[in-house]
């Protein structure tokens, strides 16, 4: 079956897919790529990062670290970071712009909280609406001077740090960005820094700190960082399960499909999508399992079949937070009702992802309604063609594109160029496996 795609254009349209088949490597994990650049930048010496994700968000992190004086060179196969040591960053000459990337702004704020110089950090229109008090409050408690719009709740933030003290922080939300900002600042603090959260969010920062020589320990679900010196490393970034999720869902939904996603990151704090798809009846196998750079990695093999609805509740949400838009697509085509609760954090992402998915999937003829903390979807649905909006949110755009594989008419997605935020090759990869 032909696919009609305008790569990098404003609109795209697909024709209905019959099945998904093939083997794909998915680009490097976005969360781990950000962390690799930041931590390498504050070690003394040269780190090499392979399978780094080159996307708009991770380029925001690279540009920010360059503005702080770190030398970074990259080609298609690797990134070389010449770190300036924990205390060697320099005051940036201009405002740092994190673009669309919450991870860049929040994690970097933790590092900036440790610097005695002044930095002003901002982002695009979406990021300037996202909540920052969640990092500003604990970083101020550690001793950093931070101001921002709306009483420190919104970026731009101005940060002058230094002389930090470790804190014991019980996080009111499960957020890896909050936890990581505090741990980054903890590298500059006197005494121990402890962060407690439940349920646990992704733990890439803890693992990577350990890999760089950081003194990380766990006690009763809390992570504790003691003052540590970091050392340059060679890293290989696993494939991003959050990007792979779009193809996993497409393959799981189409009987006759057989898809292998190679070298995917399988850190258990990220694999909620596998558990949920299996609870919907999906056939997913793991192969070639190993550990690389302190992270679980392996191949995912997905066979297509008929899916059924499921219930997703609070405890699993941090393990699949970015996959909820594409899970909503799986639910739309599955038999029966799917209920997603405990996901209010979705309102504070690049767009309000509950409102975005409910509005746009409704335009496609899907029975979906919003809940205060999630959504309810009644399946199976016949998906009709329509023009839909991405809200400039990459995950919304890619989820709607997958709807296009199942729709009776063309789906045109306005502003789908935002896909380059996390997955510039999305359409090319999709084209390879759709038959
Ligand atoms: O730490 C990270 O790399 C991320 C953490 C999550 O955000 P929160 O920490 O806000 O939940 C996730 O949604 C985001 O895509 C990446
Ligand atoms: C929420 C996301 O990223 P960030 O918070 O870094 O903007 C995402 O990639 O879905």
From TrEMBL:
<feature type="binding site">
    <location>
        <position position="102"/>
    </location>
    <ligand>
        <name>phosphoenolpyruvate</name>
    </ligand>
</feature>
<feature type="binding site">
    <location>
        <position position="353"/>
    </location>
    <ligand>
        <name>phosphoenolpyruvate</name>
    </ligand>
</feature>
<keyword id="KW-0963">Cytoplasm</keyword>
<dbReference type="GO" id="GO:0009073">
    <property type="term" value="P:aromatic amino acid family biosynthetic process"/>
</dbReference>
<dbReference type="InterPro" id="IPR013792">
    <property type="entry name" value="RNA3'P_cycl/enolpyr_Trfase_a/b"/>
</dbReference>
<protein>
    <recommendedName>
        <fullName>3-phosphoshikimate 1-carboxyvinyltransferase</fullName>
        <ecNumber>2.5.1.19</ecNumber>
    </recommendedName>
</protein>
<feature type="binding site">
    <location>
        <position position="30"/>
    </location>
    <ligand>
        <name>phosphoenolpyruvate</name>
    </ligand>
</feature>
<feature type="binding site">
    <location>
        <position position="30"/>
    </location>
    <ligand>
        <name>3-phosphoshikimate</name>
    </ligand>
</feature>
<feature type="domain" description="Enolpyruvate transferase">
    <location>
        <begin position="16"/>
        <end position="430"/>
    </location>
</feature>
<comment type="function">
    <text>Catalyzes the transfer of the enolpyruvyl moiety of phosphoenolpyruvate (PEP) to the 5-hydroxyl of shikimate-3-phosphate (S3P) to produce enolpyruvyl shikimate-3-phosphate and inorganic phosphate.</text>
</comment>
<dbReference type="GO" id="GO:0009423">
    <property type="term" value="P:chorismate biosynthetic process"/>
</dbReference>
<dbReference type="GO" id="GO:0008652">
    <property type="term" value="P:amino acid biosynthetic process"/>
</dbReference>
<feature type="binding site">
    <location>
        <position position="177"/>
    </location>
    <ligand>
        <name>phosphoenolpyruvate</name>
    </ligand>
</feature>
<feature type="binding site">
    <location>
        <position position="395"/>
    </location>
    <ligand>
        <name>phosphoenolpyruvate</name>
    </ligand>
</feature>
<dbReference type="Pfam" id="PF00275">
    <property type="entry name" value="EPSP_synthase"/>
</dbReference>
<feature type="binding site">
    <location>
        <position position="175"/>
    </location>
    <ligand>
        <name>3-phosphoshikimate</name>
    </ligand>
</feature>
<keyword id="KW-0028">Amino-acid biosynthesis</keyword>
<feature type="binding site">
    <location>
        <position position="349"/>
    </location>
    <ligand>
        <name>3-phosphoshikimate</name>
    </ligand>
</feature>
<comment type="pathway">
    <text>Metabolic intermediate biosynthesis; chorismate biosynthesis; chorismate from D-erythrose 4-phosphate and phosphoenolpyruvate: step 6/7.</text>
</comment>
<keyword id="KW-0808">Transferase</keyword>
<dbReference type="GO" id="GO:0003866">
    <property type="term" value="F:3-phosphoshikimate 1-carboxyvinyltransferase activity"/>
</dbReference>
<dbReference type="InterPro" id="IPR006264">
    <property type="entry name" value="EPSP_synthase"/>
</dbReference>
<feature type="binding site">
    <location>
        <position position="35"/>
    </location>
    <ligand>
        <name>3-phosphoshikimate</name>
    </ligand>
</feature>
<dbReference type="InterPro" id="IPR036968">
    <property type="entry name" value="Enolpyruvate_Tfrase_sf"/>
</dbReference>
<dbReference type="InterPro" id="IPR023193">
    <property type="entry name" value="EPSP_synthase_CS"/>
</dbReference>
<feature type="binding site">
    <location>
        <position position="130"/>
    </location>
    <ligand>
        <name>phosphoenolpyruvate</name>
    </ligand>
</feature>
<feature type="binding site">
    <location>
        <position position="322"/>
    </location>
    <ligand>
        <name>3-phosphoshikimate</name>
    </ligand>
</feature>
<feature type="binding site">
    <location>
        <position position="177"/>
    </location>
    <ligand>
        <name>3-phosphoshikimate</name>
    </ligand>
</feature>
<comment type="subunit">
    <text>Monomer.</text>
</comment>
<dbReference type="InterPro" id="IPR001986">
    <property type="entry name" value="Enolpyruvate_Tfrase_dom"/>
</dbReference>
<dbReference type="GO" id="GO:0005737">
    <property type="term" value="C:cytoplasm"/>
</dbReference>
<feature type="active site" description="Proton acceptor">
    <location>
        <position position="322"/>
    </location>
</feature>
<feature type="binding site">
    <location>
        <position position="31"/>
    </location>
    <ligand>
        <name>3-phosphoshikimate</name>
    </ligand>
</feature>
<keyword id="KW-0057">Aromatic amino acid biosynthesis</keyword>
<comment type="similarity">
    <text>Belongs to the EPSP synthase family.</text>
</comment>
């Amino acid at each position: 079956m032909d696919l009609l795609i305008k790569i990098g254009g404003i609109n795209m349209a697909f024709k209905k897919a019959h099945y998904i088949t093939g083997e794909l490597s998915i680009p490097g994990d976005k969360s781990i790529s950000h962390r690799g650049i930041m931590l390498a930048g504050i070690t003394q010496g040269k780190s090499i990062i392979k399978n780094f994700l080159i996307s708009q968000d991770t380029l925001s992190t690279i540009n920010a670290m360059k503005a702080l004086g770190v030398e970074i060179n990259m080609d298609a196969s690797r990134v070389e970071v010449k770190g300036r040591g924990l205390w060697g960053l320099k005051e940036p000459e201009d405002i740092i712009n994190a673009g669309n990337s919450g991870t860049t702004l929040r994690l970097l704020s933790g590092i900036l909280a440790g610097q005695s110089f002044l930095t002003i950090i901002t982002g695009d229109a979406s990021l300037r609406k996202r909540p920052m008090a969640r990092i500003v409050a604990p970083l101020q408690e550690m001793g950093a001077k931070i101001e921002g719009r709306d009483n420190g709740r919104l970026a731009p933030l101005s940060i002058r740090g230094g002389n930090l003290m470790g804190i014991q922080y019980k996080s009111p939300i499960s957020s890896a960005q909050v936890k990581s900002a505090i741990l980054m600042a903890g590298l500059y603090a006197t005494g121990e820094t402890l962060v407690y959260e439940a349920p646990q969010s992704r733990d890439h920062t803890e693992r990577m700190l350990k890999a760089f020589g950081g003194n990380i320990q766990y006690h009763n679900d809390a992570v504790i960082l003691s003052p540590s010196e970091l050392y340059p490393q060679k890293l290989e970034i696993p494939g991003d399960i959050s990007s792979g999720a779009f193809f996993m869902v497409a393959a799981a939904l189409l009987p006759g499909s057989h898809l292998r996603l190679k070298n995917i990151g399988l850190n258990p704090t990220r694999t909620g999508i596998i558990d949920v798809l299996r609870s919907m009846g999906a056939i997913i196998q793991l192969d070639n399992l190993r550990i690389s750079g302190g992270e679980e990695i392996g191949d995912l093999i997905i066979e297509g079949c008929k899916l059924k609805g499921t219930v997703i509740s609070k405890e699993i949400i941090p393990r699949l937070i970015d996959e909820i838009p594409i899970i909503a697509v799986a639910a739309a085509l599955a038999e029966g009702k799917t209920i997603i609760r405990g996901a209010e954090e979705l309102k504070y992402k690049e767009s309000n992802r509950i409102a975005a998915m409910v509005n746009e999937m409704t335009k496609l003829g899907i029975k979906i309604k919003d809940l205060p903390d999630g959504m309810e979807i009644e399946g199976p649905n016949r998906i009709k063609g329509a023009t839909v909006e991405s809200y400039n949110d990459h995950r919304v755009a890619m989820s709607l594109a997958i709807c296009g594989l199942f729709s009776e008419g063309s789906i045109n997605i306005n502003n789908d160029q935002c896909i380059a935020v996390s997955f510039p090759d999305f359409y090319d990869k999709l084209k390879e496996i759709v038959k």
